[in-house]
Design brief:
It is elongated, with a radius of gyration of 17 Å. The relative contact order is 0.14. It has 83 residues and is mainly alpha-helical. It is built from 4 helices and no strands. Helix content is 65%, strand content 0%. The termini are far apart.
Amino acid sequence: MTRLSFFRSPIANEIRDEGREEGRASAKVEAVLKVLDARGIILTDAHRQHLTTCQDLNLLDTWFDRSLAATTAEEIFAGGTEA
């Protein structure tokens, strides 16, 4: 019989939660990139690096919201969050 206690442990739960957070962040990054591409907004390498390495879901939400109306990358990353 296989022991499943590890999969119910606090460590296993933490690993699952971290994976979920990373997945959410990755999806938000992809959404921002898709909007920017559709709107023809070009990112500098520094902005792209800043965006793709961000794991802060609230900040990614902010950038997504800004990407819907901004006309430049600087407008999206303004307010102390610029790369």
